[in-house]
Amino acid sequence: MSEVKWLNYSFEVYLKDGEWNEVPGVYIFCGTNEQNEWEPYYVGKAKKFSARLPNHEQWAAAVRLGATHVHALVVPLEANRDKIEAELIAAYKPPLNVQLK
Asked: Considering the entire predicted model, what is its pTM?
């Protein structure tokens, strides 16, 4: 399992179709660009990864943009999930995050 830094947070790298645990956290749908750097397409939060990610409404759109992976960070407290999600959206401006821009 590899890790990727987004701001000061260390996210685990997963394939989208993996097995998801019933844990809360923040996730990023992303793929690599021409410079082989991670490109975020959508940032979200979940009370349970297992309930939110398998049939996510933004996954198909993210794939059309180039998403191949999900980066996930377990974040138990909802207030912290809200804060991290907002920070990531503000910093990276993912194209599919139209509500919090």
From this structure: 0.94
